[in-house]
Predict the structure.
Amino acid sequence: MSAKHVRPSDYYLRSIRIEAFGAFAQRDVGPFTSGLNVVYGPNEAGKTTVSELVSGVLFGWEEARGNRNVYKPVNAERCGTLVFAPKAGEGSEQRLTRARNVDGIAPDPAPSVLADIDRETFRSVFSLDADQLRGLGKTSRVTSRLLTAGAGTAASPAEAMARIDEELAALTSRGKAHVNSIPNLRAALADAREAMNRGQAEADQLKQEDHEYRELAERRASLMAAVKKSNEELEALTVQRAALAQAEDARAQLEERSAQLEKQESELEASMRAIDDAGRPPSIDAVEERTLRAQMDDLSEQRGRAEHALSIAQQDAIVSQAEYEALLEADDMKELERLAKRQRLLQILLSVVLPVVFAVLGVPVFLRGRAIGSLSVTALGIFLVVAAFGMACAAFAMLLRPNHADQERTNRIADAQWVMQKDAKKLEVSKNALAAQDAQIARFLSDAGLTAANGSLRRARALLDEWGEVRADESVLAQRRQSLRAQRASLDAAFARNEADRAAALSALGAKPDTPLAVVDARIARVTEQRDDQLRTIESINTRYGELGQVLAQARHARDFDDAKLEHAMLTTRLADSMQDYARLLLEKRLLARAISAWEGQSQPAVYRRASTLLAQMTAGAWTSVRISGEGHLEVADDRGTVRDPLYLSTGTRQQLYLALRIALLQEASNVGRSVPVVCDDILVNFDDDRRASAAAALADLARTRQVIVFTCHREVVRLLRDAGKGTNVVEL
Amino acid sequence: MSETVTFIHAADLHLGAPFRGLRALSPTWADRLVEAIPEAYDRLVAAAIDRACDFVVIAGDIFDAARPSYRDFAHFVRGLQKLADAGIPVYFCTGNHDPYTSWQTSYAELPANVRMFPADAPGYFVYERDGRPLALLGGRGYYSQSVAPGDDIAAGITRAAAEAACGVRAPFAVGVLHTGLDIDPTKAPADPRQLAAAGMDYWALGHIHEARLDDAADPRIAFSGCIQGRDINETGARGCLAVTLEEGKANRAEFVPLASVVWQKLDVDVSACTTIADVHDAIMRALFAANGAAQCEEMVERVTLVGTTPLHGLLADAGVLGDLRDEVNEGYPVFFCDALIDRTRAPHDRAALKREGLFPQVLLEQADLAASDEPGAVAYLQDEFLKAGLQLPAHVIRGVGSLQRQATDALLDELDGGSDER
C-alpha cells in the first residue's frame, strides 16, 4: 500500500485531558506515542472511563439507555480534551474538546483528524473490548465501508453511494422542500396544464363572446337606425297631426264664424226688407236737399215774418179794442168820479181838522210851557202851532187846483175808437199775407214732393230728416252687406285653404282624404310603442354589449394564458432536467455499485488472506483460513479441511477470529482513519498464554502503521506488549 | 423606367408561443419574455410602415396554436389595422401551427387589406399600384396540422398559372409557401429546383426559423426566419426580410432584425481562472462580446463553463454555481443567464489514476465497460424508471452516453473531493 509513509495530515493522540468525568477531574493521561501504548491501571483506576472519554469527545457522549452503564457521572457534566500531535513532528497540535453533546465538538468543524471515520466505524473497528470481539456486529457494512474507504480515494465510495441514494430519494420525494423533485414538478406541471386549459377555455369563451359582441354591435346599429327612423316618422306624424288638429280647429272656428255671418246676413236682409216695406223715400241728393232746405228756410222765415206781423196786428187789435171797450165802460168812470169827490172831501177835512187839532193843542202847550217855564214844552207848543199852520196852507192850496178829468175822458174815447178801427184793418191785411204765404208754401212743398207734410214746413223738414235717416240706414246696411260679402268670400277662401291644409296633411300621412284624427293618433301610438320597444331592446342589449366590451377590453391585455404557457414551458424544462438528473444519478449509482463490488472482489481476498495469517499465528496453526462462503457467510477452516461457522467456535477462538479480522481490516484499509487511535480495553483476557502473546505481537504489528492504545489491568499484558514491540509506551494510571 | 416593388417578407411570428427551455425566470424577465413576441410583431408592422413598402407577405405560422388567445388575436388584428390605415395590403398563408381550419372560426373579420391564400388549392392575388398590376402573388397554406405526404404544397404555383388565374400580366411574381423545402422533410417539403422553375421572381417561404437565402447576392428562394427566437436553439438575431425586386436587376433582401430578446449560447473557458471572481469576470467578458456581435437590446444566454480547472470542485457545488448565476443576472438587467452549466473538468490525470490501481481505476474500468454498453444502460434506466413509476423520457435515452460520462466525472470528482489537489 502506498499509504504506509506518513502524510503531513496524519496526527496521533498525544494526551488526554479529563476536565470532568465522574470521579475524575483535572487529570491528564499520557503522553502517548504514535505507536503502541499500554495504559496500566488497577480496577477502578479509570481505564474504561478514559477509553469512553476518547469516544465521547470524538463522537459525542453516549446517552443513558436502559441499564447500560455509560459511565455518565451522576453529579457532573462530562468534559474532556484530546490533544493530537502531528506524526511528522511539524505543525501545531490539535485540541479537541467536547462538553455537552449539544455544544458539539470544539473547534467545530473539527480538524481533519477524524477524516472519514464515523461513530459506528469507530465503535466497531477502532474501539475494541471483549464484548465486541464476540462477533462482527454491524461490522459487515463497516467492512465494506472500510474496504472502499481504503481505496485510495479522498471520499469513500460508500459515502458517495449514500449521497447518491439521498439525491435519488430527494428527486422522488413528495416533500415540499424538494421543489425540483419529479412528483412535485409533475404536480406543478399538472397545475400549469390546468391553468393552460383554463386559458384555452377562456380563449374559446372569449371567441364566442367576441362573436356575440359583433352580432350585438350589428343589431344595436340596426336597432338604432330603426329607432331613428321611428323617431323621424313620429316627428312627421306629430307635425302632421298638429297640422291636422289645427286645421280642424280652424274649421270649427270658420264654421262658427260662418254661422255668425249668416245670422248677420239674415238680420241685414230683414232690415233691408223693413226699409223696403216702410216705403222708399224719394231719392234726392244732398245738393237738392240742401237747396230744398234753404228754400224751406226762406219760406219759413217769410212765413214767420207774416205770422209775426199778424200776431202784432192781432195784439194791437185786441189792445185797441179792449181800450175802446174799457172807455166805453162808463160806470166805471162815475165810480171813478165819486171816488174823486170823496177823496176831495177827505182832503178838505184833513186840511181843516188837522190844523185846528194842531193849533188847539199847540196853544195850550205853548201857554203851558210858558207857564211852567219849560222851554221844551214851549218849543213843542210852538211846533204844533207852526205845523197846524203849514197844514192849513197845504190844504188850502189843494183845494184851489182845477179839475180836467171829464175833458180828457171824452178825448180818450174818441182816440180809442180810431185806434181800434185802424188796428182791425191792419189785422185783416196781415191775415191775408199769411194766407198767401201758406199757399206759397203748400205749392212749394207739393212741387218738392212733400205733400205728406201737409204744407207744414216743420213736418217737411221732419220728413226730410226722416228720409235722410232712412238713406243713412240704407247706406250703412249697404256697407254692412258689402263687408259681410267680403267676410263671406274670405271665409270661403279660408275654408278652401283649410281643406287644402287638411288634404296636404293627410296626403303627407299617406292617409285617405277622409281619415279622422283618431286614426292618425292610433298610428302615432303604434309607432311610439314600436319605438319604445326598440329602445327597450337597445337598452337590454346595451347592458350585455357594455359587459362584453369590458370583458374583451380586459382580455386584450390579459396575460394569464401566456403566463401559464410560460410557466408550463419552464416546468417542462425543469422536469426534463430532473428526469435527466435522476437518470444520471441512477447511472452513477450503477457505476459506483459495480465499481465497489469489483473493488471488493479485488481487496477482500487480501483482508481474508491477512486475517487467515493472523488467526493462524494467534491459534498457533489450529485455524489457518478465514473466508467467505459461497452463500456469503464468514467461515473458518483448518489445514485438514475442517470448516466451521464462527458460531461454533469457542469464545476465545471467536474473539481471536474477530480480532484477526479487524486487525486485517485496519491494516488493509490503511488509508482510513489514519489519525484515529485504535483503543483496546482488556481484550486479551480470554486468551491463553500463547495466543495472548501472538495477539500482542499482532497488535504490535498493527501499531507500526496506526496508533494503538491498550488498556489493561494485567501486568502480564503490559509485559507481553512491551516484549512484542520496541518502544512500547507504558502509561500508568 | 424599370419597375420596382418592395415588400416585407416575414414568417413564423408564433404569436402566443411560450419561451421554451427556461427554468425559473424572475418575474421581471417572465414579463419581459411574454411581451417579447408581440413586441417583435409590432416592430414588424412598424418596419413595413416606416419603409413604406408596397405590401407585406407572411408565410405562415402567425399563431403558435390553432386556438390563439384572444389577446394575441386582438393584437394581430390591431397590427393589421395599422397596416390597413397605412394602405399596405397583407398577404399571408397558413402554417402547420395555425392551419386553415383554425382561421375559419376567426375571432373577428380581418381588415379588408388582408388576403389569405387558400389551403386546399393554390390561390392568386394581384397587387396593383396606381391601377396597374405590379405584382402577382401565388401561394397556398396548410389546411390542417400537416400536409399529406403525397400532396405537394407547391404544385401548380407558377407564374403562368398566376397570370392565367388573375387574367393579367405583371412585372413581378412572388410565391408564398409554408414549407420545409428540402430542409425539413416532415413539413410539406418542396423541391427547390421545382420552385426555381416556376417562373416566380421570388419565393417567400416560412417554417424554417432562421433566415436563409438561396443566394445572398440575388435571393430567389428565401426563408425570413422567425421574428423572435424562442429557445436556446434559436440563437442570434431574428427578424424579417425587406425585399426589393427590380426589373433587370438582382433581387435584394435586407435582413431587418426585429427580436428584442436575442438568445445566445456561450462556452466560456475558465481554465485560466483561479478564483470564482475570475470566472464571473470571464462570463461578463463573454456576454459583452456576444452582445456586441448580436447588436440586440436584451439577451438571454446559456453559459457553459468549460475547461480544466482546479475550481471544478467548487463549481460542482450547485450553491456556488447558483450564486454565480445570480451575480451575473443581477449585474446587468439586459442580460439574463438562463442557465449556467458547469462542464469544467477537474484536473484528473485519468491515465495516472488507471495506473495507480486504486478504486478510481476500478471505477474507470467499469465506466469504460458501461460506456461500451449504452443499450444496457438504457435498459437499466428503463427498469429503474419503471420501478419509480416513471416513463423514461426520450431525451434521456438520446443523451445516455453523455449522462454516463457525466456520471463518471461526478463520481471521480466526489471521490476526489477531499483530495489534496483541492
